[in-house]
Design brief:
Keywords: ATP-binding, Nucleotide-binding, Transport. InterPro entries: AAA+_ATPase, ABC_transporter-like_ATP-bd, ABC_transporter-like_CS, ABC_transporter_ATP-binding, P-loop_NTPase. This protein is α/β, with parallel strands linked by helices and 250 residues long. 40% of the residues lie in helices and 24% in strands. Helix 8 packs across helix 9.
Length: 250
């Protein structure tokens, strides 16, 4: 469902993503973790067709991104880390715009919008986007993606700005969708979320994937049977001594 081979991106001689390989099957929740600046968002932008790679091959839903970019974009959903919505539109106008773009302006989609708005307490569709908080815009973006029932969903820090109830509903919805065959590609700095939700976790650092597997496989990689994902992450990204020295000096 999501495949990348030797995926690389350079910016002015700086290699932000360095030859990574990803192969995600149908229905898997794939966690993509890393420190700030490790290359997570750049990878998502390449996988979703908003950034051209310097080198490498991308296949989504079995289609080559270079040859079938528009077909792929019709069938995937993307929730970015910062909800980018036209501020001069009202909430319902934005949703109508998305429905028209994706050609899903029909009664089934409108019914699904009503259900999603009720679930996430989106009762402000008459507001201008410019008057919405970050959390309100994040919920609106989620509705605009989930209403289309995409086959692959990319989410970059999706729970940032959400209240606890909405975050819980989103996590449970994603688990439900995965059992129905939807593939989920998720980045988050909240490692407890990744540990509980993700079937497979990849850790990227300095543009390279340094570890990938299930929680049990990651534990075997570090020679531990009981470490949390947070502990594994700190160890694998070689931050343990750095953190200790910082705390000792404070």
């Amino acid at each position: 469902m999501v495949k990348a081979v030797d995926l690389t991106k350079e910016f002015g001689g700086v290699r932000a993503v360095d030859g990574i390989n990803i192969d995600i099957p149908e229905g898997q929740i794939f966690g993509f973790l890393g420190p700030n600046g490790a290359g997570k968002t750049t990878t998502i932008r390449m996988l979703t067709g908003t950034l051209k790679p310097t080198r490498g091959k991308i296949e989504i839903l079995g289609m080559d991104m270079k040859k079938h970019e528009i077909d792929i974009k019709r069938r995937i959903g993307v929730v970015p880390d910062e909800p980018k919505i036209y501020t001069h539109l009202k909430g319902f106008e934005f949703l109508e715009f998305i429905m028209d773009i994706f050609e899903v302006n029909n009664s089934d989609t409108k019914k699904r919008i009503d259900e999603l708005c009720a679930a996430f307490s989106v009762d402000y569709l008459d507001k201008f986007v410019s008057d919405m908080s970050h959390g309100m815009k994040q919920k609106l973006m989620l509705v605009s993606v989930l209403m289309r029932k995409p086959e692959v969903i990319f989410l970059d820090e999706p729970t940032v700005g959400l209240d606890a109830r909405s975050a819980k509903i989103l996590k449970d919805l994603l688990k439900k969708y995965s059992t129905q065959g939807v593939t989920i590609f998720l980045t988050t700095h909240i490692l407890e979320i990744a540990e509980k939700m993700c079937d497979v976790i990849a850790i990227i650092d300095k543009g390279k994937i340094i570890a990938q597997g299930t929680m049990d496989e990651l534990r075997k990689l570090t020679g531990s049977d009981d470490k949390t994902l947070e502990e594994l992450f700190i160890e694998l990204t070689a931050q343990e001594e750095d953190i200790k020295s910082i705390v000792d000096t404070l």
